[in-house]
Design goal:
Layout lengths: L23 H6 L2 E5 L4 E6 L9 E2 L9 E2 L1 E5 L4 E4 H9 L4 E5 L13 E3 L5 E3 H20 L5 E6 L8 H17 L4 E6 H10 L6 E8 L4 E8 L13 E7 L3 H11 L20 H6 L11 H8 L8 H12 L3 H15 L4 E5 L8 E5 H7 L1 H17 L9 E5 L6 H10 L4 E4 L5 H14 L1
Parallel strand pairs: 1-10, 10-11, 12-17, 17-18
Antiparallel strand pairs: 1-2, 2-3, 2-4, 5-6, 5-7, 8-9, 12-13, 13-14, 15-16
Helix pairs in contact: 3-4, 5-14, 6-10, 12-13
Length: 448
């Protein structure tokens, strides 16, 4: 459990300690932005078109205002792709190196080490972070019509739990990467506080809000003190009373759904002629996004073909080999995610597996989803309880639950969290953009 203590923010060399002294002309001639460099998705907020307008999110991939935090170094075509294009190139089977969730390495020994890109060249991980930030910056500059040199960057309450030195190193590494791509004036704000800014702006009295940021890879909780008198303060670190999280989130639910439904049709948990369960490693790899391509190697495919005699039902093995030979693993993972989303609000959907076998379709409903993700739900709710406990606060003292992150669209999950804090008002922010929007609000207070 993380202690109820927050690290200090590092001020820029030119701190914006008195935003009222910033003139409108300075803001116009030296535009600014706010960057949510997220583990799963990233976004950039910019000032509105006219003075006094609210911050807006910049399009960073076509018309999309969020960008999956991914870079693909395509060695076949000697290109770099970002976001959805990076994931598509990787899934399409181009040779190269896909980097995702780069934020998670900050502060670790791995950050300053190098990685092979697959073409004989190597690059430092921190340099890859700089490449991604540069792409975000350039995308925002096209929208702003000007060069951006001032920025608020979001940061978690703890980059590295229970290691203040590594935590400071992580922020320093992120700041260095931002400066390397042209940002000269940089401020940081805690992501959970940023997420709560919109909620705070509607309050008439002080209260405690538990910010639940549940994304693709992690579920993070922060107990934050908010209120109309506090919102004018720029330094808010003391308002984070506790922070805690678990590495359980949306992709874990996808994996459970795929194992419980789709992969059973390929032989998962089926029995061999002697009544033993067939080897399950291939199924876990097919249900784990970054391991799917390892199933397609010639050696692995040959080994799987030799396992045919282990299957009582030959149809299971036939389907498995079609998935391997036709490289359908990522398509199946996408079907599992779509099924999860399709029934998360209640109801039923059909999982269409025509790519694998004609007329192969599976019914899937909300009860199956809840059952598949029962253990993940329990762990996430327990992390929320531990956060409040770490602050020495009774569950009944929490005034609101503020939900952000892509996986808060799972209503059974948010309901389970609401049940754990029955006196708290559930408040739903923009699942993918609440943090970026809140960072924009802070940037406007600092720079405008």
């Amino acid at each position: 459990m993380t202690p109820a203590m927050s690290p200090a923010l590092t001020a820029s060399p030119h701190p914006a300690s008195n935003p009222a002294s910033k003139s409108a002309s300075n803001s116009a001639s030296n535009p600014f932005c706010a960057i949510d460099f997220g583990t799963s998705n990233s976004a950039v907020a910019l000032p509105g078109a006219a003075p006094g307008d609210a911050m807006r999110l910049a399009p960073v991939e076509g018309a999309h205002t969020t960008l999956p935090t991914s870079v693909f170094f395509n060695t076949d075509e000697h290109t770099r792709e970002f976001g959805r294009a990076a994931l598509a190139a990787y899934i399409d089977g181009f040779d190269g190196r896909l980097m995702r969730s780069m934020k998670s390495i900050l502060g670790s020994p791995l950050a300053e080490s190098t990685t092979d890109l697959g073409d004989g060249s190597a690059i430092r991980y921190t340099e890859i972070i700089g490449i991604f930030l540069d792409h975000l910056k350039r995308s925002a500059e096209r929208c702003a019509g000007a060069s951006l040199t001032r920025a608020v960057l979001g940061r978690p309450v703890f980059f590295v739990d229970e290691d203040p030195r590594a935590d400071k190193l992580a922020q320093d590494q992120l700041e260095a990467a931002a400066r390397a791509v042209g940002f000269k004036e940089i401020e940081f704000q805690y992501e959970p506080i940023a997420a709560a800014f919109d909620y705070e702006s509607r309050l008439t009295e002080e209260g405690l809000v538990l910010v639940a940021d549940i994304g693709g890879g992690t579920s993070d909780f922060s107990l934050v003190r908010v209120g109309p008198q506090r919102m004018t303060r720029l330094a808010r670190k003391d308002d984070v009373l506790a922070h805690h999280g678990v590495h359980v989130a949306g992709t874990d639910f996808d994996r459970r759904v795929e194992l419980a439904t789709i992969l059973r049709e390929l032989g998962y948990q089926s029995l061999d002629p002697e009544g033993r369960e067939v080897p399950n490693r291939v199924y876990f790899d097919l249900a784990t996004w970054h391991l799917i391509n390892t199933v397609y190697t010639p050696k692995r495919a040959a080994e799987l073909k030799l396992m045919r005699h282990l299957y009582r039902d030959a149809a299971h093995h036939d389907r498995l080999m079609r998935v391997v030979d036709w490289r359908l693993g990522h398509a199946l993972a996408a079907h599992a995610e779509e099924a999860k989303i399709g029934v998360s609000a209640g109801g039923q959907t059909m999982i269409d597996l025509e790519q694998v076998e004609t007329d192969l379709r599976l019914a899937f409903d909300d009860a199956q989803l809840v059952e598949a993700g029962r253990e993940e739900t329990r762990r996430i709710v327990e992390a929320a309880r531990e956060t409040v406990q770490a602050a020495g606060v009774a569950p009944g003292a929490v005034n609101a639950l503020y939900f952000t992150g892509g996986s808060t669209g799972l209503l059974f999950l948010t309901q389970a969290l609401a049940d754990a804090f029955p006196h708290a008002q559930p408040v739903f922010g923009d699942r993918l953009a609440s943090v970026a929007t809140g960072l924009g609000i802070h940037a406007q207070r600092l720079f405008a």
